[in-house]
Amino acid sequence: MNNLKLARFREIFRRAAKTDRLDTRKILELFQLKDHLPLAKDVRQEVPRVPLVNEKVKRLSRRRRQLVNEKVRVVNRMQADLQAVCPELLAITNDGHVRR
Predict the structure, then answer these.
(1) Rg over CA atoms, the chain
(2) Per-residue model confidence (pLDDT) at position 98
């Protein structure tokens, strides 16, 4: 469904607040009028299939983000433990962070 065309159609034929049920009715009305209303022409919009390589890259990048977040959590816990055990350690380092 072309969302822009549906929005324009909704603007022309105002109704109550937006709900899924009302949206469905509007979509059906728009399909029924596609032969008579220029706005409704080409209202169906094909959604192309996502290439497999994109799905793999997405999965890998999400996994990388998880690993980076996990590393940050571990390093932060280690820093807190070091601070609790040996508070003078931070005074030795310039920036207050343990070198990684």
Answers:
(1) 28
(2) 46
